[in-house]
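Design request, tokens follow.
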């Protein structure tokens, strides 16, 4: 019996030493060198709002005055009008075409149609056209985010929009198109901070501008952050949670809109519309990837110049300019967002 116990103890000891010896000779070099893997920065900071893939919304502006509207091409007289309300449908889509750690490429489309309800437009050609039609922007865009390494990145964006006061599709004209674009080089110093600078060609203020831009997205802590793309927009962010977010800030919007107007020098007018919107925005997750967004603020008139020619800037090319009143507005939208 004693010999049997000694035999089993000897076998167990040999097995244990054999297993330990096997573990010690594993060649970890076969798994590759982790230091040789190139890493790339991402396009977001912590706690930033999820990107909208598809968005459908409604916007409403309260009543305001539209003073100093020219009565006709050959008439020196001007008249004041009252806009009872502006209602707008807004839709956009941004679909990822390529999404890897090396590059993100998106293609998008946007639609913004504003209907002006003008009180007693009368026989004024401009107010009649604006009241009977819709001030519409429809376009396509593309955006590329290219990380160069862990800290540096490039962003390139371009868009082509068809803008006009249209009553039907036959109104579409080649001079209704505008082209915009932005190029930014940036640094991502941490998962909470990314900053970049570049140049932009934009119609956001109504007229064509070539201006420097500043991108700065920063998360200060679990609650506070900011998202800036100056001078186009800027917001301070407060996170109640990752799915319930409040923002306070502004956005500059606008474009140049073609309008059919017989009797004018080119039988057309170009409405250079730009508006600043100080606002508060609330975004909340509804279910899955669907979010609700509600915003309210002031629509401040930046520019409402009606010109006789495309991209006109000179006073001699101005048909008239109106200092529109500044109504309050609200916007509500349903959004399908990225994970």
């Amino acid at each position: 019996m004693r010999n049997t116990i000694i035999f089993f103890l000897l076998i167990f000891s040999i097995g244990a030493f054999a297993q330990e010896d096997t573990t010690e000779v594993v060649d970890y070099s076969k798994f590759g060198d982790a230091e040789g893997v190139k890493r790339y920065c991402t396009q977001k900071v912590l706690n930033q709002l999820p990107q909208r893939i598809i968005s459908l919304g409604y916007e409403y502006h309260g009543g305001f005055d539209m003073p100093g509207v020219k009565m006709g091409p050959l008439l020196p007289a001007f008249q004041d009008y009252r806009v009872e309300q502006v209602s707008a449908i807004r839709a956009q889509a941004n679909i990822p075409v390529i999404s890897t750690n090396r590059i993100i490429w998106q293609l998008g489309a946007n639609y913004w149609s504003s209907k002006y309800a003008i009180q007693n437009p009368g026989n004024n050609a401009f107010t009649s056209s604006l009241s009977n039609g819709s001030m519409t922007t429809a376009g396509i865009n593309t955006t590329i985010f290219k990380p160069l390494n862990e800290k540096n990145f490039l962003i390139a964006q371009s868009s082509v929009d068809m803008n006009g006061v249209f009553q039907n599709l036959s109104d579409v004209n080649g001079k209704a198109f505008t082209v915009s674009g932005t190029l930014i080089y940036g640094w991502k110093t941490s998962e909470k901070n990314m900053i970049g600078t570049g140049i932009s060609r934009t119609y956001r203020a109504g007229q064509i501008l070539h201006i420097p831009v500043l991108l700065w997205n920063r998360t200060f802590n679990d609650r506070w952050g900011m998202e800036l793309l100056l001078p186009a927009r800027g917001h301070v962010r407060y996170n109640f949670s990752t799915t319930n977010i409040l923002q306070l800030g502004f956005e500059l919007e606008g474009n140049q809109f073609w309008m059919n107007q017989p009797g004018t020098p080119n039988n057309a007018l170009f409405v250079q519309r730009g508006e600043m919107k100080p606002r508060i925005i609330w975004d909340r997750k509804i279910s899955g990837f669907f979010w609700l967004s509600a915003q309210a603020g002031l629509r401040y008139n930046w520019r409402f110049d009606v010109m006789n020619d495309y991209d006109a800037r000179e006073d001699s090319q101005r048909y008239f300019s109106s200092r529109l009143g500044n109504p309050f507005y609200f916007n509500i939208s349903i959004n399908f967002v990225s994970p």
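Comment from the thread starter after seeing the answer: thanks! The chain has one domain: 52-337.
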